[in-house]
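2024-03-11 09:14:02 DEBUG pipeline.ingest accepted 1 chain
2024-03-11 09:14:02 DEBUG pipeline.ingest length=453
2024-03-11 09:14:03 DEBUG pipeline.predict start
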Amino acid sequence: MPKEIRLNAFDMNCVAHQSPGLWRHPRDRALAYNTLDHWVELARLLERGKFDALFLADVLGVYDVFRGSPDAAIAGAVQVPVNDPLLLVPAMAYVTRHLGFGVTCTVSYEHPYTLARRFSTLDHLTAGRIGWNVVTGYLTSAAKGMGLDRQPEHDTRYEIAEEYMQMVYRLWEGSWEDAAILRDREHGVFARPDKVHRIRHDGKYFALDAIHLCEPSPQRTPLIYQAGASTRGRQFAATHAECVFINGPSKQVVAPIVADLRRRAAAAGRNPAEILIFTMITVVTAATSAAAWEKLEDYRRYASEEGGLVLMSGWTGVDFSRYRLDDPVRHSRQDAQTSALEAFTIADPNRVWTVREIARHAAIGGRGPLLVGSAEEIADQLIAWVDETDIDGFNLAYALLPESFADFIELVVPELQKRGRYKQDYAPGTLREKLYGPGRARLGTDHPAARYR
């Protein structure tokens, strides 16, 4: 049976997310990113389009690898300024009833005790529609902002993350029993102390001796997203993630990552079919194919190829300003997102990218593919991506905000629905239940968090 395509909108609490320079376009509204009206209107739009979730990226730190300075990022608003994404969620949840929210938070710079409380609070306020995108960080500037000389090595960051997950699972799943809450007004007993358990942990990176501060929320553990595509990141995802976000410029790059993630999930004792895998994609569509290509040419007049190189330099750890535009890009070991450089080098041996080509590619849509065409053409391509790579859906990035999402909802969503590849309406329940079915509000028994109940 063909897969029903899952869809997240991909955004960030900043001026320019994946398409640097396009904030200058007269129809773009991203300059209002620091107002609640902007986010409330976006949430309402996405719910009309039956999007599963708004996936909010985040970084601590600034992109300062390009030319060894943050100046280009600051001048072009390349993911800076960037505000806290978590604070947006309650307002958007209040004006929606079904839209989920996946929010990126790094395990490298916040103690598990406080993060666990923050996500439990959001799970209550959203009626179980919150997800956590677990990342380990990749910017040295973020480490320096937290008082460190440099960030830990790539694989060490995942070692820290493993211990981190043990702690938050114990807080969310093991501190308060289901029978702890009484709310007994007559006898003046809100909760049973014997059903609330102290969590003690004395590990290599963290220590804790406390009860979780929140009563059990609808999902307890938020829906777990993970965005690591390196070898170590895939192993972490196969162990912990319910939804995995991967990146790649082509099907040839993405398909082997998907197969490897499912193989690793099966080896970890999990159902590989239940790991929902999303890849980033940007769509430019219009009523006709010709109109869509005209729209793209209009966008390119505002897109910043230098901004694309600022992003790629930060993602890969390679300062692309040191190369000539027609130089081929070669693989090297860096301590940023190792998968980012691999995707444009060794992942597809049949394609050699030059710096110029990477700059043009990243200027609209970042590291993912750019699809252009009519609704019918876009639907054909999206279905082909799902059927040929075994992904489950897309993190849909935008060129213009909210135009890219509005065009997709008006044109592509009805076409996918007509073909039986996109939901007609939301399922009831929490975010996890909407993705996995009724009665699945909590993590399954094959998930490592279940052992802490």
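2024-03-11 09:14:41 DEBUG pipeline.report The chain has a mean pLDDT of 93.
2024-03-11 09:14:41 DEBUG pipeline.predict end
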